[in-house]
Amino acid sequence: MRKILWTSILLWFSSGLKGLQAYNGGHMELTRLKIALMYVRSVKTFRLLFMSLLSIGVCLVFLLVGLVLFHVSLFLYAPWSMATKMLVGLFFSLAYLMATFVIFTQIFSSDKWLKIFNADAIMENLHEEVAQKDSVKR
Known about the structure:
Structural class: mainly alpha
Number of helices: 5
Helix content: over 70%
Largest sheet: none
Oligomer: single chain
Number of domains: 1
Number of strands: 0
Order of helices and strands: HHHHH
């Protein structure tokens, strides 16, 4: 991507100096097409990102409303004593806190993200290349 951007910047700069190049139109058109393609792909990516974030937000709202309604109906209409209701509420709050902790540690684990985006394999390849260069220097 950097290469395309630098190429487009240099081509636009050199387009002002038309007399120095024999045929400039083909390169400029190709660069414009590549930039337009990158733009369309980025719009598509942002559209999908927005749709997925909106969907996640709506699902999260429905989940939270469902949890609140469940607890309200449980504590209002259950024929339990106040101590029992308090213990059940305490149990649910501890269970939710533990589930949240486990989910956050699993989702936001750096090893998991490195594995998802194949960064661990890239790092291994870099380490192998460095080891090969060191062995060649010796």
